[in-house]
């Protein structure tokens, strides 16, 4: 017989259930979406800004374009917006419907203090992000650090992060987690930069006055990035002020900079133009002219580089905005012997993009972009009546569309696609003589088509567990053949507590363009070559895991990451390869495997007068090229260390603010010596009877020796001068590169010693060549 429940018992049960469900009913109530864009008062988008409703424990961070989206329950709520280096802003909003509100934050009055104390990404945000191996650098931070010749270089600053190796003394080349230099995807506002170096690798092409921020991805690559194996370097340009016209620049030891920015049409848009040029050639030409009549004078080569950046944006309406970006950079080297011999060498990048951002709804935004990228070098020489020219180019036409979709507070979905038409100009050889007895014009180029489709979802599974999963389908078509692959990406974070998170990720990447070089350094004459015929796409896989821990009340962040990466179809040259103007260049290649593994330990502090970081990396990198194509391969097929393998790498960066006008900075670098191949001995050889004996070197396995360890201390002082009329901001930056004058090895050669009486060789002595001694510099920076 069914049991009957009295009225009072029913009421008690209902009240009990309502009490149990009350916390959940609060979340089930009607919500509306608050969205918009967070900028500085100068119009610059602020990625990573925090938008929160503290009373409800709700919050979000703006994306790389400064956009935010937050679901808030119905009613009057107080919203707080904050970003380091800017004054926080609080406002009240009545959420009875979806709303869009764009916000402008004013810089802190004590800007220098804020810059020193914190960077763009707080330690708490780095703890809570799902992705591993991500470093975000602002130019404000880079400008505080000591720099070679006083020229701020964002790529050299990235070398101070764990897992990133430099190519050698003074080089801005990057070798990330055992990958080669061509395996880095370098982007400027989503446009590909093929050669990011000036001055044969000593400086990067990025003018610090035009750059807003740089994101380095060493692992856990987001699905929207593809085409390279080791890292993504995502550089974003500043957008210019929408408030007022501003001029800023700097005068340094080797280069000067000037930037102009201001509003368009009463703040509906803004523009930024920035230029930089060195003045080596001004002095060398003057010296050459002054000594032209001196027969003993040896002419000094001319060299200079310049680059030009421009960006504009304009708001078409509440839902539409357009952006345009342009870059032009050139290096020019020239030599004239005052006689019949002359040589000239130029190289550089050109790119332009046009992007349209459209907001369909607070949940869905699209970015559509088209662009062109070109890299070209030209080498020419002339002697008497003969001339020689060699040219190599690569030109891309690109179109892409990216969608951001937020169907639910727990999901952030991204999807899109891109297509690129490549033209690889492998080499054009031109030889001419005055009497037309010899004329050669041989042009070798290959067209190709590359595309990709991707989708990813950042999923907040629970308060403790968050995952990001993605899939990319990439393809490449060349000479009627189609190559492709599926590239899964996955990252997961689990919070053990408010201060401790465990992380892990996996990524598979394909690379269809290959940088071919017969040297260990990245030179302008290196050639980009497509996947075709016997040259297959490179492929790599990487897994990594580790933890992030906040210490001492959140003032310090300690991270430890362990990674393992293995790669297939790695490319190198066989011995005696013919590189230039070779229509069968693919026959000169050897193919092998590579793998690397290591541990990266990183401690960072961003609060207080003394800030900075300490990074230590213990790593191994290997290569193996077995016998093939009628050769013994490389090293007879045995494993060997590539030239950029470093066992130990220690970086220490300290920034100390003495007062609001004066800051002291320093950085210390220590790395194990670079692998090198040096002769183990020599044997005598007489080519002809009665001729002199020749000492023929005997080489062991490749890279079996190590050069001496590399270490260097740089010191700097940033002195903010008192303002003068018209609100001018000025500072002097003093730098001392290699403060204790360490003579690091650039390369090693052997000097022959002979008997003074018989002139017979009696030995060989290894000699070290060092590139940079102690170098002081000063830079004057201004803004008005």
Write a structural description.
The protein is mostly beta strands and 784 residues long. The protein has one domain: TonB-dependent receptor, beta-barrel domain (Maltoporin, Chain A), CATH 2.40.170.20. It is built from 6 helices and 47 strands. It has a 22-stranded antiparallel barrel. Strands 9-16-17-12-13 form a 5-stranded mixed beta sheet. Strand 10 (164-166) and strand 11 (174-176) form a beta hairpin. It starts with 6 loop residues before the first helix and ends with a strand. The relative contact order is 0.10. Mean pLDDT is 83; it is low at 1-5, 11-28 and 109-120.
Instruction: Kindly estimate the percentage of residues that lie in beta strands according to DSSP.
Output: over 45%
Number of strands: 47
Question: What's the average pLDDT?
Answer: 83
* Helix fraction by DSSP (H/I, runs of at least 4): under 10%
* Uncertain ranges: 1-5, 11-28, 109-120
Roughly how many Å is the radius of gyration?
A: 29 Å
Overall shape: globular
Helix count, DSSP H or I runs of 4 or more residues: 6
Largest sheet: 22 strands, antiparallel, barrel
Family: Belongs to the TonB-dependent receptor family.
GO molecular function, one term: siderophore uptake transmembrane transporter activity
Protein name: TonB-dependent Receptor Plug Domain
Domain TonB-dependent receptor plug: 150-228
